[in-house]
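In practice, a research group might receive sequence data for several interacting partners and want a quick structural hypothesis before committing to experiments. The following worked case mirrors that situation: the sequences arrive first, and a predicted assembly follows.
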Amino acid sequence: MTERPTDRPGTPDPAPHDHLVRCRVTGADADALRDFVATSGADTGCRPVARRTPSGLETFVVLTRGSLAVARATRAGRGVVVEELEDLTVTGPARQAEVAPGRFTARGDVPRGLGRKEG
Amino acid sequence: MYLDATGIGSALAALAAAYPTTSELVTTPHPTHEGRTVTLLRVGGRGPHDADGVLLLGGVHAREWVPPDALVSFAADLLEAYATGTGLAYGGASYGAAQVRRVVRTLNLFVLACVNPDGRAHSQTVDPQWRKNRRPAPAGATDPACVGVDLNRNFDFLWDHLARFAPDSGVSASADPCHPTLYRGPSPASEPETRDVVWVLDTFPRIRWHVDVHSAVPVVLHSWGSDENQSTDPGESFLDPGLDAVRGRVGDGIGEYLPAQDAAVVVDLAGRIDAGVTAAHGAVYGVEQAMTLYPTSGASDDYAFSRHRAVVGTTKVLAWTVECGTSFQPPWSVAEQVVREVSSGLLALALAAHEVTDGLAATLRTPSVAFTHVAEATTTARAVVVECSGDLDVHLEVTALSGPFGLPLGPTTTVPAPGRGATAEGRVWLTWDAGPAGTTASGSVTVRCVETDESWTVPVTADAVPRPTTALALVLDRSGSMAWDAGDGRSRVEVLREAVSVAVELLRPDDGVGVVRFHHDADTVVPVQQAGPETFGPGRSAALAAVAAHVPDPAGATSIGDGVTTAATQLAAAAGYDGTAMVVLTDGRQNAPAWVADVAGSIDGRVFAVGLGAPEAVDPATLTALVDGTGGWVAVSGVLSVDERFVLAQYLLQVLAGATNDQVVIT
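A structural hypothesis for the assembly, expressed as tokens:
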């Protein structure tokens, strides 16, 4: 689950199977979601929770795209709708470039929050 | 740009340095495996143990980058807005300067912005999807996944998931040190980061609310995460090892105990968080119980809430997990929006915490205070009245006072907690020393409720009038009911004696005083005569002696009308006074003629009444009839409180100053 990207150089596959992807899983009820999570062995994030939607329940999972393809083909996978939201293997390194190292170490450099101060 | 682990600590330290009167940097005692220190910032204008606290955690899971930045931003916002006297706005959510002040003055926010700095550093520089801390791998293990513990499975709440949950519960935890995300650790609270959180809860026992900010779903989760909730059987709980074999199963009719009142509060406050989030940019997180698909063991929210049941005397900490945003690491431009909505949700929680949890409310009942027609050369009192409700003691403090008015009981008044749904009146007493007739005064008093941070500035006016001499007839009930309870175990006649002693103290030497008593009949005990000097004055002494000897007649019925008629006759015969007044002290429970209605001709604006007994024991209709249909009567019960003594004195001074029963002011 935590392996680094290992795409082989020159591989044209636009959807590498070992990439981690974050998915929304929507089902009619909690049992459908449990079936999918149990079958796929997906990482359910902080907590294995679902939230209500107008059409049922949804949960969010992380798994490799290869595992996702396998899970979708199972009976449990056919009982839910799985929507890929984000290729974490792609976005992770990009986000690392958005980290500012060592801020606020200079004397007098005080952070300001993102709220508007008004009134 | 996202902050790194070092930047978070530096940011919190910079805030503490910039705002030393409203924040404090606290170093936690357990360095991480890689030697980092977890920094705690306390935000609050009072001392660390002088206000109820909210514990805010972020960064427990390393890959969830937004929560630590959100907590730093939130703390910075509060501190700057408070310092500059502004409000705060997040998108469409707007909070006024008074609301910011209320949070900073009435709460302590304990901000542990990045619980897992080692993990964050690893996630931001090596493996973006790293979740755990960086506990070294077991000896001989080479798989990188064997490093680390999931801190949110490491708390001492049903930690041993293999033993404490049903085998088929699907509980979300792992005993495998090489599980990439869910390893629970070798023992409960084995990790320094976990122990730091426990240390904060132990060290600051006034923490009553806890939010662990994670990402991403989004959703607001409330207790419990270990099983479905039930509110009927306190014994069916995490404390019962007999349930270990079945714990955590969905739909089996066995659940974790959550008292109905707590359930209502955690759901209500979760809704406040959600509403605050939505108000910012329209995102709808929704509210769910933390156990929906599978149970969880060892989580921070369940641990915090379980403490009060596990250890007697430990503070109850209501807890939530907020799963913010829709991505662990959104682009920073998107993360900024999540930071704002989280800040708005947390501010909404802070503003509602006391109100929802304790039913706390304070409402001013006296928009102005008037010392009207005070007799010259008299010191009298009036009160600013604040109606309080809820489970907390309320403190009213005078923050400003102008004009020649005094504070006889000092600047602070404590109102004992009346309880949820009940109310109590808090009185901040002011005195005025009236000068010669014609003197006037004006000013104002500002009263602040410490617990709600509401302030009211109340105008105060006063005027002095000539003091007439008054012939006062004290009309005392001695029917059988006067032996009954006055509300606190004392008899009503004992309260009567105390009330009369207040009246006698207030007489001027040239006032007159007489005593009439009644049961089913009435007789004069002391004819009206001059009160005389303050000590040993003959009229005064005779009245006190009569009252000391006043005892109920167990067989006596109650004819208030007879008492009024006899007193009226006495007062008609009193000569040499500017005016007369009659004060009837009774519980109002008349049961024999003459009735009050029978003597209406003897009742005018100078007949007054003091009701004796608990509110439910006196007869307000009779007392109102006694005072000519006005509201000009007072009630006292049990041992006279300071408030009751002041109210009584205030009332009687107006009687002696010539006020009519429709003019008297009763606070």
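Before designing any experiment, note the following. The mean pLDDT of chain B is 95. The two ends of chain B are 59 Å apart (CA to CA).
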